[in-house]
């Protein structure tokens, strides 16, 4: 498969690097494993909870997809699986591109911060559910951020890529509002139109988007201040990848 010309022109690395360390591969594999297990456990919990109320599996999956945490953890699981296993397929190459991995890490960090600052006080799970909850909202965001700091090299980041990072949270908010207007279910109290009204929810959503922009700016600034990766190594890795 042929490498996109724009990537070759900029000598962009993909993850893991040409000679990935055991630490980087192992860390990516651990993050992927935790993400898959936590997502599966949360799915099981949701199905069981809704089944007790007389709902079916499809209803549970629909409820799962209402939460930003679940969707983001699924993206995290897919991305870090691709980083660890290095599949030569187009989806595999996409999900281990530095800009994509960085976007997903930003999403995970946002989920962790939002939960711990805004939602943690609303409930106190125990036992198995507490373990799953902490894995989703604390362990994975911290591990993903550490992986990014330790193993993701500086890369060329365009304004267009930064704007594309906004598509995911904005589409999530739009779809959630539309689904809520049809079902009267809103997954988070700060976007509950039934309780707060549209005006207050719009203000809350604007504040959330601004917070996300601020978090993006932190990652972009860190990326900009990092030393440049070894371009010779990046170029050497290109022929090997294009032959796959």
Map the helices and strands.
Layout: H1 5-10, H2 22-51, H3 57-64, H4 68-85, H5 90-95, H6 98-119, H7 127-151, H8 159-165, H9 167-183, H10 193-225, H11 231-242
Strand content: under 5%
Q: What gap, in angstroms, lies between the N and C termini?
A: 6 Å
Instruction: Give the H and E element order.
Output: HHHHHHHHHHH
Q: Main beta sheet, described?
A: none
Number of strands: 0
Rg estimate, integer Å: 19 Å
- Determine the mean pLDDT: 87
Anisotropy-based shape: globular
The number of domains is 1
Helix content bin:
over 70%
Determine the number of helices (DSSP H or I, runs of at least 4 residues): 11
**Helix-and-strand structural type:** mainly alpha
Low-confidence stretches: 1-11, 232-244
Explain what you see.
By secondary structure, this protein is mostly helical. The chain has one domain (5-242). Helix content is 75%, strand content 0%. It has helices spanning 5-10, 22-51, 57-64, 68-85, 90-95, 98-119, 127-151, 159-165, 167-183, 193-225, 231-242. This is FAR-17a/AIG1-like protein. It comes from Paraburkholderia rhizosphaerae. The chain crosses the membrane at residues 21-41, 67-85, 97-118, 138-155, 162-182, 202-222. Keywords: Membrane, Transmembrane, Transmembrane helix.
